Amino acid sequence: MSRARAAKKLAQAAAYGGGGLGLIGATLYGVLTAEAEYAKRVIGPTRYYPTPGDGLYGRYPGHPITFAMIGDSSAAGYGTETPDETPGVLIASGLAELAKRPVRLVDVSKTGAKSTDLAAQVDAALQAGPHIAVILIGVNDVKAKMPPSTSVRLLSAAVRRLRAANCEVVVGTCPDLGVVRTIMPPLRQVARSWSHRLAAAQTIAVVEAGGRSVSLGSLLGEVFRSNPSMWGRDNFHPSATGYTAASAALLPSVAAAMGVGTESFVHPEQFRGEAILPIAEAAVQAARQAGTEVAATEVAGRSRGPAGRWAALRHRRRHPKAEVDRVDEPTESSPDAVPVCQ
Fold first, then answer.
1. Band of residue 139 on the pLDDT scale cut at 50, 70, 90
2. The dihedral formed by the CA atoms of 175, 181, 182 and 184, expressed in degrees to the nearest 10
3. Hey, which residues does 57 pair with through a beta bridge?
4. According to the model, what pLDDT value does residue 241 have?
5. Which residues are the active-site residues?
6. Contact at 8 Å (CB) between 212 and 171?
C-alpha cells in the first residue's frame, strides 16, 4: 500500500470511528509505545509547568486579533524560562507585527495534554471569541497508547468546532520522533515511519475539517540532530531556541490564514517546490519536509478531483523573530479602555 493511500485510509477510519491499530500497523505501534515507556522512564515525571503568556501584544491601532494557543507541552513551551519564550507569545508577537494590529493571546494549552483534552481546551478558547487558533497535539497520545484513528478523529472534531465559530485554524502536525535521543536505534526508524504516517493522516483530517496544517519535522528535525542547543534539559522537549524555530515555521501560515503578510494571496510557485495536488499526495509530501503548509484549494472552480479534495502545498518564507512587546491593558474603568473585537 502506498503511503498516500495508507494515510488516506487512516484519516477515513478516524472520520468514521473505526480503524483501530490495523491501518498503521499493530507491530509498528506496539514497538513505538514500548519505546515511549522507556523514554518516559529516562525523562522522568513532569516537574515544570510553564507560565502562559496571556495578554495583549503589539502597540498598534485597531481592534485586537484574538489568538488561541491549544495543545500539549509543545504548545505550552515546556522547559522555557519566561513566558516570552513560549510559542504562544512568539507567534502572537510576530502576528501583531505583520498585521499591524494588536493581538490578544489566550493560551489554554497544558503540559501533558492528549487529544482527549482538546474538547475542554476548545471550550475554554471559544469563550474568548478567537479569530485564529494554533493546535499542537499528539505526542502524548503515543505514551497513552491511544489508537491513531482516535487521535486523528479528536483533532478533526476540534478543528470543526473552531471553524464553525468562524475561527481560522492552523495545526502543527506530529513531529519526527525518530530524532528523539531517548529512542535508540534501530527503533528510531520505526518512530520516524510512525510519525510520518500520523502527520499525513492529521493533515488530511485537518484540511477536510476546514483548517490548514504545517509539518513540524522542524520541531524535532535535522537541525536538532546537528545543534544540541535546540534540545531542552530533559533531551526530549525543545529548548527556547527550538521553540523559536517551530514558531517561525508556524507564523507564516497563521498570517496567511488571517490574510496578512506579503504571501497571503500569492499562488503556489513551482520553482519553490510548491504545487496543487490531491490531498493524500500533498499530505505525504508535507510529512517529509518540515515547515510545509497544506490547505484546501480549487482547480477550475472545483474543490475535488478524481483523487479527492485538491490541496495547495506551500513552503512559505519565514520572517525574522519579532520583538516581544506586551501591552499593559487598561482596566474597564479607565477612560483609555479600548473595545475588544469579539
1. confident
2. 100
3. 103, 326
4. 78
5. 73, 234, 237
6. yes
